[in-house]
Amino acid sequence: MLKNTYDDQDCSIARTLEVIGERWTILIIRDALLGIRRFDQFLNSLGVARTVLTDRLRGLVEDGILERVQYQDHPVRHEYPLTAKGRELAPIVISMMQWGARHEPGPDGPPRRAEHRDCGGEAVVAMVCSDCRRPLGPNEVVIVSNPDRVHTHADSRSVHGASHVPA
Length: 167
Hints:
The protein is of the alpha+beta class. The chain has helices at 12-20, 23-33, 39-46, 50-62, 84-87, 90-103, and strands at residues 69-72, 77-79, 127-128, 135-136, 142-143, 163-164. The two termini are 30 Å apart.
């Protein structure tokens, strides 16, 4: 999506930004998570130029985030539901929404919140240890090299060791 490459970076974040890092793209994903599926619905929600929307939808389909499904024959029209890969972006989008609610809430407060469909409680995104299942704060996490990774020539450029997640 960004039309840049990060050849000198061996980074999952940089590769993810290539797919979802452009502002209209992440807002399309947000709207898709809210249930919008059709071109005109995206257009009305976002106020983006048709050409930009067409380009971003095409890219999201190519990257497997959205699916292009025909819903009408005359004239031919398509809708763009999220794929399983696209639905996996929900925690990222919700985390961004919750960060914005805390730090950039707007004059009337945050416009939305994520709720548990069954009980109505607020759904929050949190880091949890995969082994002990304990919730973790940012100061309890370190970023380390992946021991399961197949080592390649690119590994000679990567940073080895641990880095603390900034508080």
